[in-house]
User: What shape does this take?
Amino acid sequence: MIYKVYGTYQYRVYKYIDADSKDEAISIACQGQPLHEWAVKTAYKEDVESAIQTRPDETVVIKEDFPFEEIRTESGDLFHTLEEVKALGYTEDQIWSVVVADTDEGHTYSYGPCEHWIDRLGYVATKEKHDGNTYYEETV
Assistant: This one.
């Protein structure tokens, strides 16, 4: 059975999960983050072709190293404000917020659209543009 799982951890998350029950789907979607730390969590059955199907307006979380070259300050630090990055000629769709969360596996660094401010460490820029819905998560 395919479930569409909705939750809010550091940001809004939608995932399609192949599971036997609603509770199992939520547990799989949380992937190690404690369920009590999720602000909203629910799942419902959805008629989809596969568990990896997503829609263009829904969040996609990719659990792998950030694939783009990070543009940082001259000293190699993260930028502190959007204005610092914009002053260098980058647009908001080239600016990624970097947030951190403590998990059972270690520290998870999430790279996503620049509007995040909770647990934000700073910003990086890339030559590539993001779609506003994709996040990359690295756990160290």
Q: What stands out?
A: The first strand starts at residue 2 and ends at 8. The chain has two helices and eight strands. The helical segments are 22-30, 82-86.
